[in-house]
Design goal:
There is one protein chain. With 177 residues, this protein is an alpha+beta fold. It has one domain. The protein has 2 helices and 6 strands. The chain has a 4-stranded antiparallel beta sheet with strand order 3-4-5-6, covered by helices on one side.
Length: 177
């Protein structure tokens, strides 16, 4: 009698490969989405913190927030992409903040802010005033910060981040997109 050779059959090997492929197809997009979220938020959070401190410092020194930049002027100027671009801290609008960031001043996201007087909402841009942010002018002088990021090179859907003087918690829309 001959001993049977042990091992896997071709069918067993193909089924195993198919199962692994299906699991990979499910897990990889989730992994990359989480990776993009982490990359964007790890930039936005310290940037917003520094901007917040600088705006409050300016307020303490001058009795008012610096002039509004608004949602039409983004720094850096080019459209967001998934590659880092130089943040231009020499722009006249940005000089009052005296920002100090690390990473050779290169960022993934585009940043702006708006400021206004108590109960005056004329400087509130369309993105901040619309859902889900719904920012309205409070009864004190105010500011808000916005970042827009394109972490997946699909400019059709951007990730948005928002914080304000009335609510410093960073709100997120389409994070990781």
């Amino acid at each position: 009698m001959r001993d049977r050779e042990s091992g896997f059959t071709l069918i067993e090997t193909l089924v195993t490969i198919a199962v692994i492929s299906i699991l990979a197809a499910i897990a990889l997009p989730s992994f990359f989405g989480e990776s993009r979220k982490t990359k964007a938020f790890s930039e936005v959070q310290p940037m917003f913190n520094d901007m917040r401190i600088r705006l409050e410092q300016y307020m303490q020194e001058n009795g008012q927030y610096p002039p509004t930049v608004g949602e039409t002027i983004w720094n850096p100027a080019p459209a967001p992409s998934s590659t880092k671009v130089l943040l231009d801290l020499t722009l006249p609008e940005w000089q009052p903040l005296k920002l100090r960031i690390s990473g050779e001043d290169k960022v993934y996201c585009r940043y702006t802010w708006a400021t206004g007087l108590a109960n005056v909402g004329t400087n509130i841009g369309p993105r901040a005033g619309a859902a889900p942010f719904n920012f309205t002018a409070p009864s004190t002088d105010w500011y808000y910060l916005i970042a827009k990021c394109d972490m997946d090179d699909d400019s059709a859907v951007l990730s948005w981040y928002f914080a304000s003087s009335t609510n410093p918690t960073i709100q997120k829309v389409d994070e990781g997109k």
